[in-house]
Design goal:
The complex is a heterodimer of chains A (about 110) and B (about 120).
Chain A: E1 5-7, E2 10-13, E3 19-24, E4 31-38, E5 42-50, E6 53-57, E7 64-68, E8 74-78, E9 87-94, E10 104-105, E11 109-113
Chain B: E1 4-5, E2 10-14, E3 19-25, E4 32-38, E5 45-51, E6 56-59, E7 62-67, E8 72-77, E9 86-93, E10 104-105, E11 109-114
Classes of the chains: A mainly beta (about 110), B mainly beta (about 120).
């Protein structure tokens, strides 16, 4: 069974640009969550999508957005990049996103903003 | 406001001995707790979980203990192996399980197991 796949694995952008990251969940998983990991703040929840709808959202500015497609694949977008957006962005999938459903994480997309 | 805290940034143990990783939480609404392990250049990997209706859960070499009154949980690894060397994250959620994808993570503890 293939795991959670995130692309690209590494990318470098400059301030003011925007970036789109992609996540393919485990087959059959319908819930996709996104997390940001930084040395100072640790792992922080961004948002969760289920059946193409955002069900939950963390405390991030509106520059961070996402969407989910009918095949459960998800993308997240960060507009007007700031230096502080440099981080590892992790995607996680689960069957339902609720109850005793364990989140399975991808390897992440490492974003560097110069 | 850090709702999940792992106060030990690092822990070093000898192979074959017990590793004990600790985690404290402040949010009394948390009722589902998980431990994840992370190797460099990989995503976190699920290890073990526990619901607040239990005080202990075992899975092979891994045991998680929950003390609700103290808002404290711990992960015991017995015996420790060099392959266990990784960063360990404690995580918590509300609603009896993974609450719509949202887990609140601690800062992590780097475990090093020496041969």
């Amino acid at each position: 069974k293939a795991g959670v796949t995130q692309t690209p694995r590494y990318l470098i952008k400059t301030r003011g640009q925007q970036v789109t990251l992609s996540c393919s969940p485990i087959s059959g998983h319908r819930s996709v969550s996104w997390y940001q990991q930084t040395p100072g703040q640790g792992l922080q929840f961004l948002f969760e999508y289920f059946s193409e709808t955002q069900r939950n959202k963390g405390n991030f500015p509106g520059r961070f957005s996402g969407r989910q497609f009918s095949n459960s694949r998800s993308e997240m977008n960060v507009s007007t990049l700031e230096l502080g957006d440099s981080a590892l962005y992790l995607c996680a999938s689960s069957y339902a996103g609720t109850g005793a459903n364990v989140l399975t994480f991808g390897a992440g997309s490492r974003l560097t903003v110069l | 406001d850090q709702q999940v805290k792992q106060n030990s940034p690092s822990l070093s143990v000898q192979e074959g001995r017990i590793s004990i990783l600790n985690c404290d939480y402040t949010n009394s609404m948390f009722d589902y707790f998980l431990w994840y392990k992370k190797y460099p250049a990989e995503g976190p990997t699920f290890l073990i979980s526990i619901s607040s209706i239990k005080d202990k859960n075992e899975d092979g070499r891994f045991t998680v203990f929950l003390n609700k009154s103290a808002k404290h949980l711990s992960l015991h690894i017995v015996p420790s192996q060099p392959g266990d060397s990784a960063v360990y994250f404690c995580a918590a959620s509300e609603g009896g399980g993974t609450s719509y994808g949202k887990l609140t993570f601690g800062q992590g503890t780097i475990l090093t197991v020496h041969p």
